[in-house]
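[step 3/7] fold_predict: job queued, chain A
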Amino acid sequence: MLKQIIYDRLGKDLRGDFLIIKDPDHPYLISPPDILLAAPGQLLAIFIPKKNEGSSSYKLISRLIAVRLALPETATCILLQPNDSQITSHWIENSFDDVLEVSEFWKYCSTFVGKGITKRWEPIPNELRLRHFLRSGILFQESEKLFKHGKVSEDVELCFTRLVRQFQYKRVKIPSFEQKVSASKTFYKHRYHNLSQAKLENPRGRRTKLLHRSLLSLGLTHAVNNGIPYIHEHGYSLVLIDELPLSKYDELKFVRSTAFCGLTLTFPDKVETIHKRALSIGHRLERRHVL
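[step 4/7] structure written:
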C-alpha cells in the first residue's frame, strides 16, 4: 500500500523535531488527510487518493475542503498520486497546494525539511472559518439533542419515503467538477435543506454510510477556488438514522464530524414533526447568517 510505503520511508529518513502521523484522528474530521508531517512552524497534510476518489473528484475535493477548514492556516495540502494515475484535472490542480507523483515527492519533502515550503494559496479568511465553525456548532447542538433525549419511533426508510412524497422533495443534482450532471439517489432537496437516510443498526458499513453522506453534503454546498473553500449554494443536510453512531475513544466524534460537513442527524418520527424540525433548523441558521 502506497500510504504505508510513504509513512515507513518518512520515518526512516526524518529525524529530530519532525512528527509523522498516519491516519491522524482529528475531532472535526470524518475523513482526515492520509499523513501529517509536522515541523516547527509548518504542517504538511498529504492526501493519497482512495479507491472511490479516483473516479469521483468531488469526494476528494470535499475531503480537502473539510481539512482546510479544520487545520491551522499554516497547513500545506498536497495530493500525492501513483506515477501511473490519471486523476488530475483543472479542479484538482486549482484546489491543492501541489499535485505530485511519488517520484517527485521525495525532492519536495527534502525542500520542506530543509528550508520550508511557501504555500501556493492565501490562508482562509478568518471570517469564513469562524462562520463555518459557528454553523457546524449549531448543527452539532441539534444532533446532540438526540444523544440526550431522542428515541426511534418510526422505520427510517418508511419515514424518509413519506417525507419525500408528502412535502415534494426533489432529487439533488450531484456536484461534479467534470461538468457531468446526475440525480442523486441519496439526497433530496426542499428549499434550504437536503434530506437523506442511513440505516445504521447494522455496524458493518456504518462509517462508510456516514462518510459518503458527509462528504456529499459538503460538496453540495461548498467549492474551492484558488485553494479557498467557499459556499456556492446555501443549505444544510438532515439525515434520518436509526441509531447513534458512537466512537470508542470520542463518544460524539461522528456527531461532531458530520456536523462539520454541514449535516445534522435525527431519528425518524411523524413526518410533520421531522419537516417542522428541518425548517426550524434552517431558520436558526438563517438568523445567525450562516445558512
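[step 5/7] annotate
The chain has two domains: 2-114, 126-287.
The longest strand covers residues 183-190.
exit 0
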